[in-house]
Design brief:
Largest sheet: 6 strands, antiparallel
Distance between the termini: 30 Å
Strand content: 15-25%
Shape: globular
Helix content: 10-25%
Radius of gyration: 16 Å
Order of helices and strands: EEEEEHEHHEEEEEEH
Number of helices: 4
């Protein structure tokens, strides 16, 4: 089983659930299909599983120019620090970029994507591979954000705070509004959510 399923902390895990989106951080595996690094560049993408009839190689093929990663949904991918690919998700990427720019550098009319990638990289991972997070009251988090409590990840959804798993989301959990939680979604992405961009979520949310 390949170590290519991504959790909200950005960790690469070996589980059977595939998820609804693919993505990459460059070539992370060796010839034995073992993960030997957490990222190869700062451009962490989220891609569609299928796009315009493109036939993708078998995951972790030695012929690939990236290691295929899989996510439960877009909210999970954003929590891990990925953003939409501009090739297979052009409109989605443009909408995210516009919201991110307006929320984080409103005085600028144009911010190149490499600049956004560099900013996200500072907000998502330390050099030793551990997750960058920040603390905030649960009541201040917009829809689509993810936070951690006692080692479990939760999604802020319309119907409450839903516990995350590779299979989907659980029933709503009640937290005190003043609870200070560890926020997993990078800060600038949370700002983009507050500015009107809402991530797509797994069907189990409903």
């Amino acid at each position: 089983m390949l170590q290519n399923r991504v959790d909200p902390w950005g960790k690469l895990c070996a589980v059977s659930e595939r998820g609804t989106l693919m993505g990459n951080r460059g070539v992370l595996h060796n010839a034995d299909q073992k993960v030997v690094k957490q990222w190869a560049h700062e451009r962490w993408l989220t891609c569609l599983l299928q796009f315009e009839g493109i036939r993708r190689a078998k995951p972790f093929s030695t012929l690939n120019n990236y290691s295929e990663l899989f996510f439960l949904d877009e909210a999970t991918a954003f929590s891990a620090g990925h953003r939409p690919c501009h090739f297979c998700q052009r409109k989605r990427s443009a909408a995210f970029k516009a919201a991110w720019t307006a929320a984080n550098v409103p005085a600028e009319t144009f911010v190149p994507m490499p600049t956004i990638d560099a900013a996200l990289h500072e907000e998502r991972a330390h050099q030793n591979g551990t997750k960058v997070s920040f603390n905030a009251p649960v009541r201040e988090l917009p829809i689509g954000s993810m936070f951690a409590v006692d080692g479990a990840a939760f999604l802020v959804a319309d119907r409450g705070h839903l516990q995350w798993s590779f299979k989907g989301y659980g029933a709503p959990t009640v937290f005190a509004p003043e609870l200070i939680a560890e926020v997993l979604t990078p800060r600038s992405i949370v700002n983009a959510f507050r500015h009107g961009f809402t991530p797509l979520v797994h069907a189990s949310v409903e």
